[in-house]
Amino acid sequence: MKLDGITCLDLSLFLPGPTVTQIMADHGARVIKIESLGEGEPNRHIGQRRDGESVYFACTHRGKESLSLDLKDPAGLEVFLALARTADVIVESFRPGVVRRLGVDYDTIAAINPRIVYAAISAYGQTGPLAADPAHDLAVEAMCGLLSNNVDDLGTPVMPAMPAGDMLAATLTLSGILMALLRRTQTGRGDYLDVAMMDSILACMPNSMGAVFADRVPPVPRNERIWGGNALYRIYATGDGGHITLGGSEIKFARNLLTALGREDLIPLCELPPGPGQLPVVTYLTETFAGRTKAEWIEFFTGLDVCFAPVNDLRTGLDLPQTRHREMCIEDVAGREHLGTPLKFSAEPATLNLRAPTHGEQTAAILAELGYDPAAVADLEQRGVI
To answer: In the Cβ-directed half-sphere of 229, how many Cα atoms lie within 13 Å?
Structure first.
């Protein structure tokens, strides 16, 4: 697999960092999760459980090893530094400054292992006026301006269905780590990667910067192409309380749909800029889609060259033949479902170890690799270091 031979020490918590390291584990990396004593990784204890295990944890920690360790104890720090001497990657997501206080910061690690690729994920970055502020995804989406455009028909911000800051930071961090590993093959040295969730969100909004950059004003969501200003890029209610979407604003799709509905006269309005000029089309489609059930509209759109999709619930989405064909919902030998990997390599596909570790499961084995004999391991355990 692509990351065979790579060892990653995972100091991260919750969602973005564990997502990065799980993808790495799926593709061959050895990932050692460093967990605190006591409760360990927080998402072990969040959300619904299946067979005694948090689904959240299972979806972010499969294929990893768990080492329970008190980094605040000098003996625990010694264990971590021993691992770091030969590791390839470290991922952390503490608040800025914490790793330095713990003695596991980049400068300390690079001094003993200049090949290390060290990735730090935080809400606002390691520097700047907001760096020390506590924040999870929702606060970051609010701060950077994204949430102000995630609104209902009254213009009220609504809760986002996906944590964009977490997941965009995760994917960009993975890209940065891989870039640094590639560069290391040429220079022999690793690097330090500072990824902010807010930076990641803003970098992924190039198609939303028109009004902001051209006119230096905030966008009006109802007039923007991707936020409802285009009649062919909207969510519409059906007569039975369901919803459907039109998801392609190209004029060819407007022609195809409005011709099929017998309203070719509205096609010129779809060539106007998003916003008030397209309102007559929006009004017509709103009234029209309310006249039939969701199932009837699914049948109507079958074979019609229009970007259309029903609004499915998540259970339905996982059960779609396309989802199953792409192996994005897979089952283990016990029939439990798991998310698949989105990276589909041809020559070296991922091999998914669907089992997540129990808290500290590999602690003794990892210490043995480092040269600790059973008596030393028992002593560390008795002293509350592991």
So the answer is: 18
Query: Which residue intervals of 134-263 are DSSP H helices?
Result: 137-144, 164-187, 197-203, 210-214, 251-260
> How far apart (Å, rounded) are the C-alpha atoms in residues 55 and 46?
8
122 forms beta bridges with 196
Active site residues: 166
Cα end-to-end span (Å), the chain: 32
Checking DSSP bridges between strand 53-54 and strand 65-68, what pairing results, if any? unpaired
Nearest CA to 245 out of 283, 296, 297 is that of: 297
Q: Could you give the CA distance from residue 171 to residue 23 in angstroms, rounded to a whole number? A: 10
- In CATH, the number for domain 7-203+356-382 is 3.40.50.10540
Vertex 179: Cα angle to 58 and 25 (nearest 5): 20
Question: What are the pLDDT digits (tens) for 196-234?
Answer: 999 999 999 999 999 999 999 999 999 999 999 999 999
Question: pLDDT (tens digit, 9 = 90+) per residue, 169-189?
Answer: 999 999 999 999 999 999 999
Torsion, Cα 57 58 63 67, to 10 degrees, reads: 30
Tokens describing residue 47: 């959300």
- Inter-helix orientation angle 16-26/164-187, to 10°: 50
Determine the CATH number of domain 222-318: 3.30.1540.10
Kindly report whether the global pTM for this prediction surpasses the value 0.85.
yes
**Every domain of the chain and the residues it spans:** 7-203+356-382, 222-318
Please state, as a whole number, how many other Cβ atoms lie within 10 Å of the Cβ of residue 319. 12
- Supply 358's token pair: 């129990």
Is the fold of 7-203+356-382 the same as that of 222-318?
Answer: no
* Nearest-angstrom CA–CA distance, 197 and 121: 7
Strand boundaries in 259-373, DSSP class E: 308-310, 329-331, 337-339
